[in-house]
């Protein structure tokens, strides 16, 4: 469970690692604990990017597979013989004779 203090701590790490556009980036100096937090945060961000890319590729792959399977099912449906619940074929046409 994330408490308010944890959330604020995370925001301070983000603010340290990612300064605003008006400020040029300069790595933290002197505070080893803050630097370690920043390094961990950056490592987590890199890992999240990798995981996000893997998820996107997996979703694309699965979408392709589903489309292929639906195509096969559609093709099979056209080739199935009539079943017990399908309408009887009209061999004589609509008018009979």
TrEMBL record:
It comes from the Eukaryota. Keywords: Signal. It holds the Pfam family PLAC9. The keyword Plastid does not apply. The keyword Metal-binding does not apply. InterPro entries: PLAC9. Residues 1-22 form the signal peptide. PANTHER family: PLACENTA-SPECIFIC PROTEIN 9. This is Placenta associated 9. The lineage of its organism: Eukaryota, Metazoa, Chordata, Craniata, Vertebrata. The gene is LOC118146100.
